[in-house]
């Protein structure tokens, strides 16, 4: 079974590929400027280097989204493993991870609202499965 690649390994792969084909910024400074020009969050060249070398881990979702946009890959690229792709459940697992990361950035009130919505959707889906009249 192949080992799970880290965020740093995945980011480094993107950076190396982009540098090899000349389709993206070649330095952390250029990457930082490109993200800012695209309206993304401020990411210093030093922070980008730390992410790419594994000195910083678990970036906030808005940083992941900005990197995905810069390299034209889906956000799920950073969360999906080769092993998950073949199981049929990997996509759902990735979605759950992305949802959790996004929820982390919400206020306590925002998280309570999301939980209330999840409860509502869960009740609705349960009622649909049970059909008219319930079981």
From TrEMBL:
PROSITE patterns: HTH_CROC1. Residues 43-78 form the HTH cro/C1-type domain. One of its GO terms (molecular function) is DNA binding. It comes from the Bacteria. InterPro entries: Cro/C1-type_HTH, Lambda_DNA-bd_dom_sf. This is HTH cro/C1-type domain-containing protein.
């Amino acid at each position: 079974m192949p080992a799970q690649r880290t965020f740093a390994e995945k980011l480094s792969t993107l950076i190396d590929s982009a540098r090899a084909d000349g389709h993206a910024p070649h330095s952390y400074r250029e990457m930082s400027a490109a993200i800012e020009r695209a309206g993304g969050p401020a990411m210093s060249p030093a922070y980008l280097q730390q992410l790419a070398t594994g000195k910083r881990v678990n970036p906030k979702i808005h940083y992941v989204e900005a990197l995905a946009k810069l390299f034209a890959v889906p956000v799920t690229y950073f969360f999906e493993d080769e092993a998950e792709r073949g199981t049929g459940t990997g996509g759902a697992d990735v979605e759950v991870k992305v949802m959790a990361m996004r929820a982390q950035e919400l206020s306590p009130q925002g998280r309570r609202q999301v939980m209330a919505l999840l409860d509502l959707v869960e009740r609705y889906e349960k009622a649909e499965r049970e059909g008219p009249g319930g079981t």
